[in-house]
Specification:
Layout: H1 12-27, H2 36-68, H3 75-93, H4 102-131, H5 136-151, H6 155-158, H7 160-163, H8 181-191
This protein binds fe (ii) ion (FE2) (2 copies).
One fe (ii) ion binds at residues 16, 20, 53, 57, 117, 120.
């Protein structure tokens, strides 16, 4: 009978943490001396993952948090931070990897993203888990469905390497939940070349 039960979706907060972990994982493969093809694939993968992730948060997660508490720290400032991220992504897409500013722009994007992720993981996600525990799995299901809608038309853009960055289904249960902003910030500091530390 158990097979007839609808599968329980992972919670939206675990899905968000898993997205963050995958972006970090991809970012850590980036090196200034990486071959151009691989570098382009890494940057394209990160940019698409960030775009989809930000849209999912804006459409589903942030409004749900606002419904249960209008004054949760972090929601209001997240929108302009996402907009800044989109601006940096647009800049990158207008460049070629050989451009002198390409690596610097990507590292600036990742530095800002890591600050944003650290804030979400230390404040917003724990608050959501405290304020609306009964809604997290249903919202996770909504997020999974919407992600597939958003990715469908773009699946051919980047191929398998990009799709691997988008966790779905049960795999998300293994969510890194590294959880600690300090860990995330430490990771990005370790990964950045010295002038960025
Ligand atoms: Fe965000
Ligand atoms: Fe996020």
């Amino acid at each position: 009978m158990a097979a007839l039960l609808p599968p329980l979706s992972p919670s939206i907060t675990d899905m968000i943490r898993m997205d963050h972990s995958h972006v970090l994982e991809t970012f850590h493969q980036f090196r200034p001396g990486t071959a151009v093809d691989k570098k382009t694939a890494l940057v394209d993968t990160v940019c698409l993952a960030l775009e989809v992730h930000a849209q999912l948060e804006e459409e589903i997660f942030y409004p749900a948090v606002r419904e249960v508490a209008s004054d949760v720290a972090g929601v209001d400032k997240s929108y302009p931070e996402h907009d800044e991220m989109r601006r940096q992504i647009a800049l990158l897409r207008g460049m070629r990897p050989a451009d002198p500013d390409y690596d610097r722009t990507f590292l600036e994007l990742m530095r800002d993203v890591l600050h944003h992720v650290a804030d979400e993981e230390t404040t917003l996600l724990p608050e959501a888990e405290r304020l609306m525990p009964e809604r997290l799995h249903r919202l996770g299901g909504e997020m999974a469905r919407r992600r597939l809608q958003l990715l469908g038309p773009r699946a051919g853009e980047l191929g398998w390497s990009a799709l691997r960055s988008f966790p779905e289904g049960a795999l998300v249960m293994a969510a890194g939940a590294v959880g600690a902003g300090a860990y995330l910030m430490g990771s990005v500091r370790d990964a950045l070349p010295r002038p960025w530390k």
